Amino acid sequence: MIWEGNLLKMRATHNRPVSYSLDNGSFPVLLNQLLGSEVKLEYMNRINCIRCGKTTRTSFGQGYCYPCFLAAPETEDCVLRPELCRAHLGESRDMDYARSHCLIEHCVYLADSGGIKVGVTRHTQVPVRWIDQGATAAVRIARTPDRYTAGSIEVALKPVFSDKTNWRNMLRFRGINSATLLENKEKAWRYLPEEFQPFYENDDDICEIDYPVIRYPESVTSVSLDKTHAISGMLLAIIGQYLVWADGKCLNIRKHSGYLVRITAG
Ligand SMILES: [Zn+2]
């Protein structure tokens, strides 16, 4: 099989294990089927902006050319820092976008992605957001009417929980420990400022996620396509947005959005 296309975030479906595909290139590729095969990924030295398609020397904000990075609603500050969202005040780069992305129900959650972290996502992104982060388990802690409120809750909980994922820990084997997650949810309740208590989520349902993995790598090295133009070997695992090869090399696909690559397998 030879596939060519510009990388985009892998599409993930919550099966056991998660099914991954790349569906914007020559043809849709079901990546789970490539596990255990020799897979070579080569960078073709071209990046196309994932919004306007123009060639760009450097990728900004995971796949944008500089003008799009400055103008697109997808790269506004509140994407990474929801507490900065001003859509509820009628301010945004694009209010139509804000009405469908910021002024809708959001979920504040705790996820085990190699450590317990707090995060925020649109309700429509559950559980995809958790899969993208490589979480093995997640639980909702609050349900809010907009992005700003969810972001404010996250900020209030930052002294108690990390909001970062450590990718090395994320790529290690972890069991699913539902009890720990629920203990942390109780802790979140204890630290939740009173003004946010009405948004607390009583549903303690734990979403468990397992990944297509032949075995977990002993050590991992993250590869940047700007420096390493080809990776090859047996494909060992897909976790979060990472492809992991048998020698421990791993590639964050989302980070390389827009990069034109050729994948040869079999
Ligand atoms: Zn562009």
SSE blueprint and pairings:
Layout (H helix, E strand, L loop, with lengths): L1 E5 L4 E3 L5 E4 L6 E2 L7 E10 L18 H6 L5 H4 L14 H7 L4 E7 L3 E7 L5 H5 L4 E8 L2 H11 L9 H4 L7 H14 L15 E2 L12 E2 L7 E10 L2 E4 L3 E4 L6 E7 L1
Parallel strand pairs: 10-13
Antiparallel strand pairs: 1-14, 2-3, 3-4, 5-11, 5-14, 6-7, 6-8, 8-9, 11-12, 12-13
The structure holds zinc ion (ZN).
Zinc ion binds next to helix 1.
Descriptive report:
It contains 7 helices and 14 strands. The model has no long low-confidence stretch (mean pLDDT 95). 38% of the residues are buried. The chain has helices at residues 66-71, 77-80, 95-101, 128-132, 147-157, 167-170, 178-191; strands spanning 2-6, 11-13, 19-22, 29-30, 38-47, 106-112, 116-122, 137-144, 207-208, 221-222, 230-239, 242-245, 249-252, 259-265. Bound molecules: zinc ion. Zinc ion is lined by residues 49, 51-52, 54, 64-65, 67-68. Residues 49, 51-52, 54, 64-65, 67-68 line the site of zinc ion.
Overview in brief:
The chain is of the alpha+beta class and 266 residues long. The chain has helices spanning 66-71, 77-80, 95-101, 128-132, 147-157, 167-170, 178-191, and strands at residues 2-6, 11-13, 19-22, 29-30, 38-47, 106-112, 116-122, 137-144, 207-208, 221-222, 230-239, 242-245, 249-252, 259-265. Helix content is 19%, strand content 28%.
| Rg result | 19 Å
Q: What is the overall shape?
A: globular
Q: What spatial order of strands do you see in the largest sheet?
A: 1-14-5-11-12-13-10
Which small-molecule ligands are present, each listed once? zinc ion
Count the strands?
A: 14
Helix content: 10-25%
